Amino acid sequence: MSAPEKNPENAAPLFATTRWSVVLAARDGEEPDAAVAMETLCSTYWRALYAYARRRGCSPHDAEDATQAFFAQLLEKEYLKSVQAERGPFRAFLQMAFKRFLSKERERSGALARGGGTVHLTFDFAEAETACLGDSPDLAADEIFESRWAMTALGAAMEALRGEFRALAKEQEFEVLKTVLSTAGNDGGGSYAEMAAALNTSEGTIRVAAHRLRKRFRVLFRAQVAQTVASHEDVDEELRHLVSVLARA
Length: 249
Known about the structure:
0% strand; 12 helices; mainly alpha
């Protein structure tokens, strides 16, 4: 019994072209993959915007409408060509663009237009609202946005890791081992002996598997974050920022 061990350089590559860099390239000419890249990013990180809108005082219904209407606008081809002015990470661009969107909507009518977009992404707003109910009332809207963004990146890496175990028919092992990812202690917040008993293996084997699991998770988390920056030179800085956000959460 062991955790999936893959070569980090080959198994989860930080592609020469990230999703965000594909979107940014759309300004300079036809970029057929730009819309797909943007939709993937939006589908992953929409919860941060919903949580931001709720903390800014939008009702659940208005926050839903704002998120859907904003993405409908964002995914329009001509709008994609205008994002090049924002050279920072996708996180910073998305937050600033959403702030402007909310301000313009309030200036126009004080209410959001409903169902006007031609693009419709499927979001689980009930799940997002439940998460909002657990947010600290002391956090400002910007802090909520960044916290939700960082947690989403972690969750995406976790799901990718779970998928690798599932592909090897080892999901039960993942469920037992995953606790080592959420604690800093050497025993993963639980007894290695108990995990070994649950998986009918030795404690030494569990320690090796836990080490590999942590290592693989770091690779997948880095790969997830890499897709949201314009170049690989920006990955380490963005990682440091998100880790600091998680430390404050």
